[in-house]
Amino acid sequence: MNTAYVEESALTLPAPRGACPFAPPPAYEAEREHAPLSRVRLWDGTAVWLVTGHARMREVLLDKRFSADARVPGFPFLSPGRKQLLTKSTPSFLRLDDPEHARLRRMLTGDFIVKRAEAQRPQLQHIVDEALDRMIASGSPADLVRQFALPVPSRVICLLLGVPYEDHEFFESHTTLLVDLGTAPERVKESMGVLNAYLTRLAEDKRRKPDDSLLSRLVARGELNEAECAAMGMVLLVAGHETTANMISFGTLALLRHPEQAARLREDPSRIKGAVEELLRYLSVVHFGLPRAALEDVEIDGTVIRAGEGVLCMLSAANRDGTVFEDPARLDIGRDARRHLAFGFGVHQCIGQPLARAEMQIALGTLLRRLPELRLAVPYEELSYRTDKAVYGVRELPVAW
Questions:
Q1: Residue 376 domain-assigned?
Q2: β 8-12/37-41 pair status
Q3: What is the CATH number of the domain that holds 328?
Q4: What was the pLDDT predicted at 301?
Q5: How many whole angstroms separate alpha carbon 215 and alpha carbon 52?
Q6: Domain extent at residue 395
Q7: What is residue 51's three-state secondary structure?
Q8: Is 5 within the bounds of a domain?
Q9: pLDDT in tens, 123-160
Q10: Could you count the other beta carbons within 10 Å of the beta carbon of residue 267?
Q11: How many domains does the chain have?
Q12: What is the C-alpha separation between 243 and 397, in angstroms, rounded?
């Protein structure tokens, strides 16, 4: 057991991106090659452990001695705004440990199982076709982010939760503030308050007039009050469209930059499921990592992480681990990428992944089929990326066809 001092890296998180927008920050990959665990610094000077290797990350995310609860000592925050967001008075189930995490998660399981996502495919196809029809009707060029990639998952999550889609600009604007690392704590608090009040009122409405939405079913269970239902709704509303929207637009860009891969998909549409797994691995839009805090001393690969020390699991680096994925910097839609960690791992892995997969498969497959001449409408070098957001991607994607 190594209980001696571990040399601290000069790296301060989050690390800057390199020349390739699809690749993780070079510093994360360098740390992975150097050591399975590294000591790095956050914005406030706090030292935390950085995990970048695939095997070590799975080990940490499976270990119940590492807490996902933002209220425990040593939990790492990537900015003052994130600290405000993650330590709210009524935490989401994502920020709780078992058994409370499991109790709340079970309330949602039936809405996100693979069978349910598969049954929703006709409805998802209709939503995708409608969004694409509107984009095409608006004329070429168009911004794929605002006119296709964002409306599709926003409509889906609104239908699932029972949120009126006419309110999408309202909740999207507040979501944008919440996922921005640079948003000041007071603005984060304000946006959370506004969204919470909105969802609390909606939960009250569902109690008076039940329907078939997820939020209505949560209210009808009688196990949660309106504030707890609102907290559950908020995490689903934010996470339910941000990640998928960015995967659709960023995945489209990756395929446009690798036309041979797009051609393979057009020639054989049955490859779409494998292609989406590879894009999830290759892009890893949850790019700031999964935070944890040690509840007790834990030995990982001969090094002891002390109780009260924070850990950040960098999914993007693990998904480029050459010991798991051959030639990991290459996009290959024929690769078996199912061991990727884009949705996390262990008990806290993304509950919405079956639905997210179905949305991405249908959206990307339909886009390639209906717009065979799809191309960038601006030089690739002019694109701007969401380096300051909790969910990475491209800010705008002007395309023509």
A1: yes
A2: parallel
A3: 1.10.630.10
A4: 87
A5: 37
A6: 21-400
A7: strand
A8: no
A9: 999 999 999 999 999 999 999 999 999 999 999 999 99
A10: 8
A11: 1
A12: 16
